[in-house]
Design a protein that fits this description.
This is Replication factor C subunit 3. With 287 residues, this protein is of the alpha/beta class. Helix content is 51%, strand content 11%. It is globular. The termini are close together.
Length: 287
């Protein structure tokens, strides 16, 4: 987590991956403040670059920082125009790497400033081998046939295949051939968490109830739903509330029933988190 001071009394807190040489940011997840988050980040990098000597020191550090932006094909055009502006104005301070699934959704002025590198999706048999390796390292039985079913349903998406394997094991183990294989459940939980964080009001409970119920009907284990929601909330909640969030996670984890009957407890947990989120300081924007 990093704090960006934009103006005199304005602070944005958002999660990203950082090293001395690069920064990774999922701008799609910053739906409300992606523009401010990106500009604050670039400004910090540019200010640091202005203080760095033109000649590299003895450690041969790079004179610029790489910014890796994910899901660029799923953001609004105004954000893409901002990326183009950053490319034009801050090329000496930072280099931008854009990651996307469909480059046709990237504006042409942005594409023209980039070198396109296509990374092919893994083949189905390669995903099968990865799933089998995971089962060996985690010490549980996984037949090649069931691994093939998961890999085929994931449509060459390795992450979705791994998350589907996790969900299947949480729901029923040992595996059976007729066992349902939920796909995209993690994306649904990310959406739910984003909605709750954007508007932690009681009426939001009614909006997310259908999504939670759909996950339960698709045999995603309630404890897995709870765990993934907590992971998303921890990325955005203020540090002073994390201990309380850990407490309520443990509290509901012990009391969750199995199957669709867990819906009420999951809603209760979300409502509890909303009350925590609303206690946040109004002077800070937590993303």
């Amino acid at each position: 987590r990093q704090q960006l001071h934009l103006e005199a009394n304005s602070t944005i807190v958002f999660p990203f991956t950082l090293s001395p040489y690069h920064v990774e940011l999922d701008i799609k997840s910053e739906t409300k403040s992606a523009r401010y988050a990106l500009m604050g980040l670039v400004k910090q990098i540019a200010d640091h670059h202005a203080l760095t000597p033109e000649v590299s020191d003895s450690s041969f550090r790079a004179e610029y920082k790489v910014i890796v932006l994910y899901a660029n094909d799923k953001v609004a055009e105004n954000i893409q125009h901002l990326i183009k502006w950053v490319m034009d104005c801050y090329t000496d301070a930072c280099k931008i790497m854009l990651c996307c699934e469909d480059e046709s959704n990237i504006l042409e002025p942005v594409r023209n400033r980039c070198k396109l590198i296509n990374v092919d999706a893994p083949e189905t048999h390669e995903i099968v081998e990865v799933l089998l390796q995971i089962s060996q390292k985690e010490n549980f039985e996984l037949s090649r046939g069931f691994a093939m079913k998961i890999a085929t349903k994931s449509k060459q998406n390795l992450r979705k295949a791994i998350m589907a394997l996790e969900s299947c094991k949480a729901h029923s183990y040992p595996f059976v051939d007729e066992q349902p294989i939920p796909i995209d459940w993690e994306d649904t939980l990310v959406e739910i968490a984003a909605e709750v964080l954007a508007d932690p009001s009681p009426k939001r409970i009614f909006n997310i109830r259908g999504k939670l119920q759909k996950l339960l009907v698709e045999f995603v284990h309630p404890k897995l739903i709870l765990q993934k929601l907590v992971e998303q909330f921890l990325k955005r909640v203020q540090a002073c509330f994390r201990r309380e969030l850990y407490y309520w996670h443990a509290y509901y984890d012990k009391r969750l029933p199995s199957g669709s009957s867990a819906l009420l407890k999951l809603e209760e947990f979300v409502a509890k988190f909303m009350s925590i989120q609303r206690r946040g300081s109004p002077g800070r924007l937590v993303l």
